Request: fold
Amino acid sequence: MIEAHQLTKRYGDKTAVDQLDFTVRPGTVTGFLGPNGAGKSTTMRMIVGLDAPTSGSVIVNGRRYAQHRAPLQEVGALLEAKSIHPGRSAFDHLMAQAYTHGIPRRRVEEVVELTGLQSVAKKRAGSFSLGMGQRLGIAAALLGDPQTVMLDEPVNGLDPEGVLWIRNLLTGLAADGRTVFVSSHLMSEMALVADHLIIVGRGRLLADTTVQDLVRQAGGDTVKVATSDPARLREILAKPGVEITGQAGSEELLVTGLSSRSIGVYAAEHGIPLFELTPMTISLEEAFMELTRDAVEYHGTTGIQTLRSVA
Amino acid sequence: MSTITSTHTSAPAPSRSTRPSYRVTGLRVLRSEWAKLWSLRSTWITLGLGLLFLVGIGLIAAAQYKSRITSGHHMDPDFAGATAVSLSLFGTRFAQLALGVLGVLVTAGEYSTGMIRSTLAAVPRRLPVLWSKSAVFGLVALVVSTAGVFATFLFAGGIVSGTNAAMTLSDTGVVRSLLGAGLYLGLVAVIGTALGALLRSVAGGISVLVGALMLIPGLISLLPSAWQDNISPYLPSNAGESMFALHHDATTLSPTAGMLVFLAWTVLALAGAAWRLARTDA
Reply:
């Protein structure tokens, strides 16, 4: 469980993180999305106490990270790739981390195996490929068998097999009841693993939502209908869970909550001619880009309003 | 690689009841820093280099002295008043560079590589990391240097025996000088560690270290001479030299005073490092 309250970080007159409020809950994968420079990494650094907030606070499992007796057991974090000394072997790196907490050698061997690093564990970490480096970072994050796992851009530099491995790992960790917080600037990647989304732009919270809600709000199931008798079509389609909008005098209606197929069937049953029947499909990626583009251009409008205008 | 996709399901998730209780303690941070120090090749190389300077240069100085005596060659002033102690400590000023640089690497090296993020994620209270690094490396340097100077003295003493410089361990001040040199080098290592943590830059740390120990004494001669006499003995290099010099005069501090002044410099560097570590973002 990660709780941020009015979390703010300023560097001089640049505000990297601006009054963020969010909660990351256990048992699901929470995606932390935003374009590059949105303040994701800074937020994550503040969560583990590498950076101090200018104002506001963030607590992990009820306390500030530094106040835990065994921090690695509370939060396992993969920050920017390669938080390692290139001259030290992967195994020695993990062992040095383990010593601070009294974590046994057996557990180090476990995470080495879990991340598939057995064959290179004794090699200098500086010789690792980007993907191997990521695996080592993930091994370090899992070392303390933490309640909360936080990964900054974990799929960067991974081959397709590695990406799949991360996905399975994340969903597996969440299924264990852990809190999983993963940042990315790729909506398409997040859509595959995350249930919950926290979207930021320019350091501000744009949306704190679920994947389903984002799809719905982005107009993923809205259908544009044009007919000669919009008033009558409204009556026919009006049901609980169906939302219909349209301007007076216009032949066009926007229908949410019904498929284009069923709208067509209803209209035919009642003999209403339709001129146009268009599903307004919008991909998550488009919704996300629209959301964050606006955030960048207009300095962070409140997210959901922006979403409506897309539909 | 084929094992990777299949192992995720075994992601161990012990239930709450069987969860091991880990805890960060001062001793464990020390243990971790000890492991970190010895798991880098640069430690072995630099420490070996330091020991080589210390012993090798001391022996070369003794051999030179001996050969000039026997050949009746003109004795330059550096050598004229030499003793077995001063000859065997000839390498100190070179060894201090190696040890100080390694000290800088111990801390600043973590910043330049990004390792510091892992270190501080494991020990977010931070200051135990600085104390542990200084203690571990300071003690290693102290032990290695003390062993080095005693070994050098025993060999160099053999080389110059029968000359004016000849001395044995039982002579007044000899053991004190040799222990002082070991302690001096141990403290230089701590100062290097502190400077690395304070400046967070390998190049910066080494520059300040070299400046403080080797360049400032030269610059002090630019000051009016009345000031020189007041300031000069308290400079890190001169105070440090008082710790292991066999003979003292009015312009130098006594061994004890020299040690206290040099300790004060060490504490000052550590305080600056602690302040920066605790106060600023990593």
In short: Chain A has a mean pLDDT of 87. Chain A touches chain B through 56 residues (CB under 8 Å).
